[in-house]
Amino acid sequence: MSTRNSDTASGGFTRFIPFVGERETASEFLSAPVAWLAFFLALPMGMMTAYSFLQVQNYEVVWKPTFQNYQTLLTSDIFRTYFFNTIEISVAVTILAILLGYPLAYAIAYKAKNPELWLLLVLGPFFTVYLIRAFSWMTVLGRNGAINIILLRTGLIEEPIGWLLFGKFAVIVGLVHAFLPYFVLTLYATLGGLNRDELEAARDLGASPIRAFWDVTLPQSLPGVITGSLFVFIPSFGAYVTPLILGGGTVPMLAPLLDQFMQLTLNVSKAAAGGIIMLVVVVVATTLIFRIVHLEELFSGQTEGGGGS
């Protein structure tokens, strides 16, 4: 019987950073980069927050505090339509990432003979510029794209399918392709930290592979599923390039809308207010998630009240 003991919280973290010495804690190692990121994140965020409470008159920012920007957005039917459509697309992308990513991460962690090679293939899209990846889907989904050509030549359709490109379907496909690796890598890290003794014990007690998966593997892998879902939902929620290219500007999403505030109406303050609203959604979602899943649980593969590893 093979064994894999779980690491402690710090051990589970430093297992992925082998050059961290025993006397160095994760917090000491991360203090400098965290401070660096905090400064360069806090400064622009502070400026955006300040602009969101200022007025714009004659296309110029006037330093007079106001809540008008938030009131205008929150009471706007157009903004609410864009907001809920963005939520809908982000949730759809996240669900598809779970359905596609879990079997892939599971196969790499437990079935693959060469998991490093498979992980490299998963990371393959990261070696291509994001813009090029989005454009590449146009050659697949377009009226003269690969899918329509195959369907036409096989006689399954008589004319090209127009809704594959420049619509919600294309945006969802592009976002899943872009952010699926985040989910797979996160879940793979969690699956790699599970205690296989419990899984093999369940098998020894007569549990079928499916029953052992549902009773042992799936509950313990939930931290990775939840955290990976967050890593997919957040960038999908703020996606800009994919809706413009694959959506053709016809799919209502928030990031392109805020760009219109900046470029067309030159209303920097309204765009900043919209950005703050998006940030609040992300912060609330992240806070709720990490009240359930702690960082050490991501690597140790256990949830509160769940089975240990």
TrEMBL record:
It is a multi-pass membrane protein. The chain crosses the membrane at residues 34-54, 82-105, 117-141, 161-191, 240-259, 271-293. Pfam families: BPD_transp_1. Signal peptide: none annotated. Keywords: Cell membrane, Membrane, Transmembrane, Transmembrane helix, Transport. It comes from the Archaea. It is found in: Cell membrane. InterPro entries: MetI-like, MetI-like_sf. Residues 83-289 form the ABC transmembrane type-1 domain. It comes from Halospeciosus flavus. GO terms for cellular component: plasma membrane. PANTHER family: INNER MEMBRANE ABC TRANSPORTER PERMEASE PROTEIN YDCU-RELATED, INNER MEMBRANE ABC TRANSPORTER PERMEASE PROTEIN YDCU-RELATED-RELATED. Belongs to the binding-protein-dependent transport system permease family. CysTW subfamily. This is ABC transporter permease.
